[in-house]
Write a structure and sequence with these properties.
Helix content: over 70%
Largest sheet: none
Number of domains: 1
Distance between the termini: 57 Å
Structural class: mainly alpha
Oligomer: single chain
Order of helices and strands: HHH
Number of helices: 3
Radius of gyration: 20 Å
Shape: elongated
């Protein structure tokens, strides 16, 4: 219960500090939330093989398109 209270205090304190121009607490909260979103996204993708194959196909298509685009520009 103390951990939850400390997390809530940090969230409220960082929001109040952001009102005075200090956005470092909000940035830290954003990084944690972003990391958890990416983590759960990867866990969800890896738990479903069909989605994993679709994601791999999309990534391969993007890499091939980027390679072809760079070759046409002479890079």
């Amino acid at each position: 219960m103390h951990i939850l209270a400390a997390i809530l205090f940090f969230v409220f304190a960082s929001i109040l500090a952001a009102g005075d121009g200090d956005y470092s607490g909000v940035a830290a909260i954003g990084k944690v939330v972003g990391f958890l979103a990416v983590l759960f996204g990867f866990m969800w993708i890896l738990s479903k093989p069909v989605i994993l194959l679709i994601v791999i196909a999309i990534v391969v298509a993007i890499v091939v398109a980027a390679f072809i685009s760079n070759r046409k520009e002479g890079r």
